[in-house]
Design a protein that fits this description.
Elements (H helix, E strand, L loop, with lengths): L2 H14 L16 E6 L8 E5 L4 E7 L11 H18 L9 E7 L7 H9 L7 H6 L3 H21 L20 E4 L21
Parallel strand pairs: 3-4, 4-5
Antiparallel strand pairs: 1-2, 2-3
Helix pairs in contact: 2-5, 3-5
Length: about 200
């Protein structure tokens, strides 16, 4: 069984047993999963899990993902897909509701532990803060991981849009910390990183 099928089977088992999974991804652990789709063809398209309270968890599954500048790497491709989700949503005049949507990169337990630096850096935004200031306060490893995330994001926006990308800005968290972007090895590892339009001039990359 490949990894995508394993993740799908894990979610299906919870749905059949009427057990919530949202708590693993920063959602309320009360809503029951109601729908399960594989290969959806849009967004993070490996798996989409719908829940009874209209929340949604989109998962991209990778057997391995590490911190690399290669745009065709598992991480680079996943961030590019996330950028496309944000661009497509903005084009409709809407916004992704971070209280209702989770985008998850699910990796095997054997994935490089360098992802922990990205997790730590992104989780620093759980309580809000601007991108540049919060990034500057992190350790060197976490700063470099966030810069890599930023590099992939800008490259994806440039490749997929006619104009320059808007700078990244982290949205303030609600009263309870929100985790919208998650990297998970089913060990409750979660990451919070938000894309948002900003009134500042586009950053040159």
């Amino acid at each position: 069984m490949d990894f995508q099928a394993e993740v799908g089977a894990w979610l299906a088992a919870h749905m059949l047993a009427r057990l919530p999974v949202g708590g693993r991804f920063g959602l309320a652990n009360t809503a029951l999963p109601t729908t399960l789709q594989l290969e959806t063809g849009d967004g993070l398209d490996d798996i989409r899990l719908g829940q009874a309270d209209d929340t949604r968890i989109d998962l991209q599954t990778k057997t391995s993902a590490g911190l690399t500048q290669n745009a065709n790497s598992p991480l680079g491709k996943t961030i590019a897909q996330l950028a496309r989700v944000m661009m497509d949503t903005r084009a409709t005049g809407l916004a992704v509701d971070p209280a209702k949507v989770r985008a998850v990169l699910a990796v095997t337990a054997a994935a490089p532990r360098t992802l922990d630096a990205l997790e730590g850096g992104c989780r620093a935004f759980d309580l809000g803060g601007t991108w540049e200031i919060t990034k500057a306060q992190r350790s060197r490893a976490e700063r470099e991981a966030l810069e890599l995330f930023e590099t992939h994001s800008y490259a994806a926006f440039l490749a997929q849009s006619a104009g320059p990308p808007k700078p990244l800005r982290v949205l303030p968290a609600p009263s309870s910390p929100d985790r919208w972007w998650s990297i998970s090895a089913f060990k409750a590892r979660s990451v919070n990183a938000f894309f948002s339009e900003s009134s500042k001039p586009p950053c040159s990359k």
